[in-house]
Amino acid sequence: MEIAPKRLELLRELIPTASVMALLVNPSNPTLADANTKELQAAARSLALELHVLNASAEHEFDAAFAKLVQLRAAGLVIGSDPFFTGRSERLAALAVRHAVPAVYAWREFAAAGGLMSYGASITDSYRLVGTYTGRILKGEKPADLPVQQITRSN
Hints:
47% of the residues lie in helices and 13% in strands. It is of the alpha/beta class. The chain has two domains: 4-120, Rossmann fold, CATH 3.40.50; 121-155, no CATH class.
């Protein structure tokens, strides 16, 4: 997840006068939420930013999270990488537009739905890599023997 801090850096470049940013995470997925929070808090410190962590684990919690974002006067929002958010890119993009908050997410689909920007690997390439691994395992290769690969093309 080393690219998550880059999303915060991109927002900072977009809004150089910002002092407060926010991160939206899904607390019902603590592995991703904790990793996103830890990485972005470290990045925020290095950028001299105050970072507020907002939680949403159900779609009806989005409105409250965005209301808190506005109340905190956060200049921008990083949406943490989470499958729950991926399936709701359009709703999150619409809320960011309605509240006039620059927001960034991992997948291109967020920007295509009206969000400001995305920065991350191609979701299509990610699925293709999963398919390749699955095929190799189904042909008899042991998962432990497969090399670790990372997507190198971004959206």
